[in-house]
Design a protein that fits this description.
heterodimer, A: 306 residues, alpha/beta, Rossmann fold, Alpha-Beta Plaits, 2 domains, 35% helix, B: 419 residues, mainly alpha, D-Maltodextrin-Binding Protein, domain 2, 4 strands
């Protein structure tokens, strides 16, 4: 299944919130939806879900206009909350039924999910008696218990402890393996890198960057070389003596111990640098082109805009 | 394709219905009303039972009244007249005022009467309460004894004079329309119940909408059900819960009211009997009023994101309900239920349920008037429902400061125009 968002625009009153968003998401893959607060992520998600229509543009499933009566969409909103004063099992059954499950299916599915989350003993407790993290788990269950073909998770990891984060990772991987189209929106880039092959960065209502993470990273100038060595002083000395014409700068990395960071004038001189160092006889642990982190990319594309 | 939609509406309806039914305040209020009904129904039986058992007691246990006769030669006329009026007392004659006063002070007598002259007396009592009617009775005794003795002097026997004096007109009232005096209390109770039910259920719907918004459950709900399914499911679910409550209350009333009617004196019966037509109209108008107000309350509540902001936006509509109630109560008290104001309010959708009901229960209203009023209300319900759904669609995702009603309407229409 392929879900296509085709050039959608949306304004609220005078404010233009989306200025032509286009996206492609596929079954069995997760798409990372990135953007600063107010970039238009939630509006995009709501239009995909049919909460309100786009002013122009279309949502297609396998090339045909989306039919939300046939497609189930599970959604974990960023603003968390269900009914604080109602029993957990009642709420799960309710959301299951709203997603079109029969009463019996909703009950059995709710029980399965409580078991899966190891929260069976809370079934008859009120939601408000649970910790924030546990409430979030219940809400996740409510979103995905109907086995949706499209899953949209907005900041699913915020507020979870490492053990619960592991549990959530398993669940997300399962959803992907089962062939769901997964949208993952988060400011925690490590999670995006872990699950998503593709990302789209929104800024000011437009997509400023989209594609596979690998392609994006590879498209960057590969002009920074990192050299890991315990003998970094001699490496630096060597570079300044024999290679200073080819570099912009060379310095000890402030963030990683025993690492030298070299910025080349031209990426093509990388091989010459490798040869120089390997023939010098200095003990080297490793040399590589430095990849930009997703964080660097995000900041570069969204800074000073909005 | 339609099945999913329908199941969403059914799910909302079922969820809202059980939420209300399981609500503590709802259960407690139902139990309280039923308990009050029960007590009110069986209280007369209990009171009568106690009263009859106490009157079986000894003659000597009766409180005593002392009288001093200085007005007439013989005591017997006055003693007899006193005995006739104060059946629950023993009447004792004492020699003089001092003895009488002493006796009252000591608590031997409840009170004492000194008949100084044929038309003059002195009432001696320890405490004079505001609603003491003793003197009114004595007044009657004094005048009747005076008249009898004076007429006797003119040769008319006590028996004859009594017949002449006690002669009075016999009346029988034939009511061709509605008997207002008989209908007043039952109508009052039903109008009051209508008014309170409208307020309580409107508030219930409004609170439930705002709670969904403030807890942010709406964020998820809105993605798996359409706003109109959510609103209609909620309103109709709460409505069904309301009808359940009414069914319970009227069910208990139907059983317990006959018990009460059997135990109270005949002249009170008409006051407390609820004519079956009135009850049916009350239920019908509650259903109409419920939907008229529930849609308005739901729409207003959807614009609010915190429960604290609710009362501000609700006050205009509250004012209308209170206005309707006051108009009807004034109309009922004046007895003029066909005043222009009453007639006008019985066709305005927001006031019609209470106003038309009172008119039907307490006066004669032509069938076409009733049908017209109900038709206006039914049409209003459809219009308000559509309107409320449109506001709801915009309102539920608004957070922060609630918009003014005008702004909200502007949003609704601008949105409609575009989509």
């Amino acid at each position: 299944m392929q879900l296509t968002v085709n050039n959608i625009t949306k304004s609220f009153g005078e404010k233009e919130v989306l200025r032509g968003i286009s996206l492609n998401a596929y079954s069995g893959k997760a798409l990372g939806l990135l953007g600063r607060n107010g970039a238009g992520k939630t509006t995009t998600i709501r239009i995909i879900m049919g909460v309100f229509p786009a002013d122009s543009g279309e949502i297609l499933v396998d090339g045909k206009p989306i039919d939300r009566n046939e497609l189930t969409i599970g959604y974990l909103p960023e603003e968390r909350g269900m009914y604080p004063k109602k029993k957990i099992i009642d709420q799960l059954v309710y959301f299951g039924r709203l997603h079109g499950l029969s009463k019996n299916d909703a009950i059995s599915s709710s029980k399965q999910w409580l078991e899966r989350l190891s929260m069976e003993e809370y079934a008859n407790k009120k939601l408000e008696t649970l910790s924030k993290g546990n409430q979030q788990k219940i809400q996740l269950a409510a979103a995905v218990m109907c086995k949706p073909s499209v899953v949209i998770l907005d900041e699913p990891f915020s507020g979870l402890d490492p053990v619960n984060a592991m549990l959530l990772k398993d669940i997300i991987n399962e959803l992907i393996d089962e062939g769901a189209v997964v949208f993952l929106s988060s400011h925690q880039m490590n999670y995006i890198e872990e699950f998503c092959e593709d990302i789209a960065i929104l800024n000011g209502g437009s997509i400023v960057l989209s594609g596979t993470i690998n392609d994006i990273k590879r498209s960057y100038r590969r002009d920074i070389i990192v050299i890991d060595t315990l003998d970094y002083k001699n490496v630096l000395k060597l570079i300044f003596e024999k290679f200073s014409n080819e570099i912009v700068s060379a310095e000890v990395d402030k963030e990683v111990d025993n690492r030298v960071k070299v910025k080349l004038k031209e990426p093509s001189s990388k091989q010459a640098l490798y040869n120089l160092i390997s023939s010098s006889g200095i003990d080297i642990d490793g040399m590589a082109v430095m990849q930009p982190t997703l964080n660097d990319i995000f900041v570069e594309y969204t800074e000073d805009k909005i | 394709m339609k099945t999913k939609k329908k199941s969403a509406f059914n799910a909302v309806l079922g969820f809202e219905y059980t939420s209300v039914i399981k609500n503590k305040a709802f259960i407690i209020s139902t139990i309280l009303i039923v308990a009050v009904l029960f007590i009110a129904s069986f209280l007369p039986v209990l009171i009568m039972g106690l009263a009859s058992s106490s009157s079986d007691g000894d003659e000597t246990e009766k409180p005593k009244i002392a009288i001093v006769n200085e007005a007439y030669e013989k005591d017997d006329i006055i003693v007899k007249a006193m005995k006739d009026e104060f059946k629950d007392y023993n009447i004792e004659t004492v020699k003089n005022e001092d003895d009488a006063q002493k006796g009252v002070k000591d608590g031997k007598y409840s009170f004492s009467i000194i008949f100084n002259k044929p038309l003059e007396y002195k009432y001696i009592t320890l405490t004079q309460s505001i609603n003491d009617t003793t003197t009114d009775i004595i007044d009657a005794v004094v005048t009747s004894v005076y008249r009898t003795t004076e007429l006797e002097k003119k040769g008319i026997s006590a028996e004859e004079s009594k017949n002449i004096l006690s002669a009075s007109a016999k009346k029988s009232i034939v009511t061709l329309g509605t008997d207002q005096t008989a209908a007043y209390i039952s109508t009052y109770i039903l109008v009051m119940a209508l008014y309170m039910a409208i307020l309580a259920y409107g508030q219930l719907v409004a609170n439930s909408v705002v709670t969904e918004k403030s807890s942010r459950a709406m964020e998820m709900l809105i993605t798996c059900a359409s706003p109109s399914d959510l609103m209609f499911g909620k309103v109709i679910g709460a409505g069904l819960a309301g009808f359940t409550q009414i069914a319970v209350i009227f069910g208990v009333g139907a059983v317990s009211l006959p018990v009460m009617l059997n135990s109270i004196p005949n002249d009170l019966k008409s006051v407390f009997s609820f004519p079956i037509e009135s009850v049916i109209f009350a239920i019908l108008f509650f259903i109409l009023a419920f939907f008229i107000y529930a849609f308005v309350f739901a729409a207003i509540a959807s614009l609010v994101s915190r429960i604290e902001d609710l009362s501000n936006l609700m006050s205009p509509i509250m004012f209308i309900i209170i206005f309707a109630f006051i108009v009807v109560i004034i109309g009922m008290n004046s007895g003029d239920l066909s005043s222009p104001l009453m007639i006008a309010t019985s066709y305005i959708p927001f006031t019609a349920p209470i106003s038309m009901f009172a008119r039907i229960a307490m006066s004669n209203v032509a069938a076409w008037e009733i049908i017209l009023s109900i038709a206006i209300q039914v049409v209003s319900i459809f219009i308000l429902g559509k309107f409320a759904a449109a506001i709801y669609r915009v309102g539920v995702l608004l957070y922060g400061k609630p918009p003014k009603l005008g702004e909200a309407l502007k949003m609704v229409f601008s949105k409609k125009a575009r989509s």
